[in-house]
Automatic annotation (TrEMBL):
Example GO BP: methylation
The keyword Methyltransferase is assigned to this record: yes
InterPro entries tied to this protein: SAM-dependent_MTases_sf
Protein name: Methyltransferase
Keywords of this entry: Methyltransferase, Transferase
GO molecular function: methyltransferase activity
Amino acid sequence: MFPLKNILHYLCRVNTSSLLWYNSDADFDKLYPERIQRLSDRHWTPIDVARKAAAFLANAPGKRVLDIGSGVGKFCLIGAHFFPLVSFYGIEQREELYRHAVDAQVATHIKNAMFLHGNLTQTDLSSYDNFYFYNSFFENLDERDPIDNQFDYSISRYLYYSRYLFNALERRPAGTRLVFYHSLGDEVPSAYQLVDASDDMLLRMYIKR
Ligand SMILES: C[S@@+](CC[C@H](N)C(=O)[O-])C[C@H]1O[C@@H](n2cnc3c(N)ncnc32)[C@H](O)[C@@H]1O
């Protein structure tokens, strides 16, 4: 039997250390190896953006939010931390990034996030209520600072994925919420009404009519 004093000390330590991840992007990115940290500015959602986006998508307890192209899981883990009554899921095509997401989840003790390794085109969007999208297909148009070189990027690949997502979003019911960050907007069907945006319009929030 552990004395109660030791158990309380342990719980405080876990709580305090897990809260420290959310102080700044630099702190959060320490969950990942250095190569992944260096990609953060360009490829992973900043904490304040993730928090705002998650607040909009977590509109009721029990909602299921999918990050389409979840990278190392930054959006999902931040959303899950601040909105514990909502489940955050991420689908990611790169196995290495998926593994980093799972490792970060273990380190942060987050229970309401889940990561899947695979392609968006193998994912049934009808299992989710709301969606987050950080311009995941843009790597096919702009080859500067790539995450890695494991895919053949091309305009036709961009168009194929954008059209696929557009069609899948069009089939979702009225009330579906969508957040797009840094996106060209090619994937947003006209039934989705813009209801809020950041001043620079990089973060846009939609609800399907
Ligand atoms: C800009 S990063 C955003 C990562 C994460 N959503 C975040 O905000 O921190 C886009 C990610 O989408 C992934 N991705 C691109 N196309 C995909 C596809 N068809 N299926 C699954 N993941 C994809 C990329 O591998 C990359 O990790």
